[in-house]
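worker-03 picked up job from queue 'complexes'. Input manifest follows; two sequence lines, order preserved.
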Amino acid sequence: MVPITTFHYLVVAAALFVLGVIGVLTRRNVVVVLMSIELILNAVNLNLVAFSRMWGNLHGQVFSIFITVDAAAEAAAGLGILIAFFRNKETINVDEIDLLKW
Amino acid sequence: MNPAMNSALNSTNSAMAPVATPSFFYALAALALISGFLVITRRNVVHSALALIVTLLSVAGLYLMLYAPFVAGVQIIVYAGGIMVLFLFVIMLVNIERSYNDRRFSSLWPVGLGAACALLALFVFAFAKGRALFPDRLMPLSEAANTQQIATMLYGDAGKAGQYTFVFEIASLLLLVAILGAVVMTKKKI
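worker-03 finished. Artifact:
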């Protein structure tokens, strides 16, 4: 079998990233959109850890921990917005969140 | 890197080599991608959340294969344990019965899918052209001292601030702001 290289991890991460982008762009449910953003952040994390292995130092892993912190903050703020919005408009569809559109 | 650490690394590598087989990588990657696909296609949001947990766990397995046990642990504890519980709470709070019979995909889904396919083509192009940028070497990383080395970078060593100490403090400030923001937005009356 071919040994696993950095490139393999990059391909997996790119596929995960594209799956997340598809979810963000096509789904109507805000919760699923937020989960797709988590998929995207995970793909980035996987890239960083793979590069950390490629270069033999830990900077990539430290960065991926900071991105995890970001993901937690983003999830808390996003879900807070979602609850506030659901209380006002009784919907969690992206299509109906258009107050700022004209 | 000092020679003692190198020899320790080599012994770790030789001991770890049989575990990290290529077939293991392919299984984890396939699991991550299949459950990632389920996340964006399931009608029931709870099923999406459960599939996302499977994705997070298999990505944690990939971290272990990359000799990053601390990041794998953070992934399981913070993502699968913390963030996903937050998601499930919110799914239970908002009314999912109402959206259950709705259309899953937005009316503009072909445009979104096309844009994502363009992004995929860009990735394929960049990876095919820039293959030489990613050398095949995999440097040895010590798995035993991983957590300690990350702690040295985050907190510093022997009274000196580490390389990322300031960033680490800023991250705690960011979390505080996120907590306050979530409380302020969720409360009915301040």
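worker-03 released lock.
The CA atoms of residues 18 and 40 of chain A lie 8 Å apart.
The longest helix of chain A spans residues 59-89.
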